[in-house]
Design brief:
By secondary structure, this protein is mainly alpha-helical. The chain contains 14 helices and 3 strands.
Length: about 280
């Protein structure tokens, strides 16, 4: 790879616009070849919806022929690259974990991999690496539609690396630029990520009744995509809420919020305790 990197630096001398290549090199650790792949990896689907609206206007103004041309040329986004990057990421992380933990069983490795590749972890990685600043999107990043776009873009970015430079460069990027600087495996292994199980266990120890309620809505930007909203009740008292693109995801978010509130809100804890005592007949 040393020779390949040297040749890339020579090629860069003949590139008229060097800034995008150098900007990506700062993140990748090597120069990209097909920069259009990375541009696509950083194009969120909200931009596509915006372009579609413009296509409708173009259809009215210019006629259907031009509109069809616009639709075929600019309406791509990073979802296909995200699909590819997700598979590559899972394989490489599994390989790294297998080599790092020579005496751990399958269950431990599977659980640790899920912690590393979950959307919240990938969101943080994208922000820590400065990748989030390069993402093109429309609307607020905190809406349900966009809440996981950083993690999705990270996977799409890895998919772009795979198509541009191959599997070995994906491995190099993750090992040298991600794990080396941003992921401490032993620390991640200690982290609790199954918030719902932890909350249920907390309630069972205290004999508190817990209930998860879900509602389903349509994403406001893409009505074909369901968004789930969860509310967790402990002894009938609202303790946390969350949302996600699956019931499991929204339940986890609600449980995480509830666990955090139980640590910081004395009023919530006292209210639950009071309700539990009342149910048991120890409080009138």
């Amino acid at each position: 790879m040393v020779i390949s990197d040297l040749l890339d630096n020579i090629r860069l001398l003949f590139v008229s616009e060097k800034k995008p290549f150098l900007q990506l090199k700062a993140i990748l650790g090597f120069l990209p070849h097909n920069i259009k792949l990375y541009d696509l990896a950083l194009k969120h689907k909200s931009v596509t919806y915006y372009e579609q609206e413009h296509m409708k206007e173009a259809r009215k103004r210019e006629g259907s022929a031009k509109a069809c041309h616009i639709q075929s040329t600019v309406f791509a986004n990073n979802e296909r690259l995200e699909f590819l990057g997700d598979a590559v990421l899972g394989a490489i992380v599994a390989d790294i974990l297998y080599k790092h933990y020579g005496n751990k069983q399958e269950g431990f490795l599977t659980n640790l991999r899920s912690k590393i590749v979950c959307r919240s972890s990938l969101n943080k990685l994208a922000a820590d690496m400065g990748l989030d600043a390069l993402i093109r999107y429309m609307g607020a990043a905190t809406t349900a539609h966009n809440s996981f776009m950083r993690g999705n873009a990270f996977e799409a970015f890895l998919g772009a690396i795979y198509l541009d430079r191959g599997y070995s460069y994906c491995y190099r990027f993750l090992e040298e630029r991600v794990f080396k600087y941003y992921i401490d495996l032993d620390e991640v292994a200690k982290m609790e990520k199954n918030f719902k199980s932890s909350l249920i266990e907390w309630c069972q120890k205290r004999q508190y009744e817990i209930e998860f309620l879900q509602t389903e809505q349509r994403d406001k930007d893409n009505h074909n995509v369901p968004v789930f909203h969860s509310k967790v009740l402990i002894e009938g008292i609202p303790a946390g809420t969350g949302e996600g693109y699956s019931k499991k995801e929204s339940d986890q978010a609600a449980a995480q919020q509830a666990l955090s509130r139980l640590k910081t809100s004395k009023e919530l804890y006292k209210g639950i305790k009071k309700a539990g005592l009342k149910k048991a007949g120890n409080l009138s």
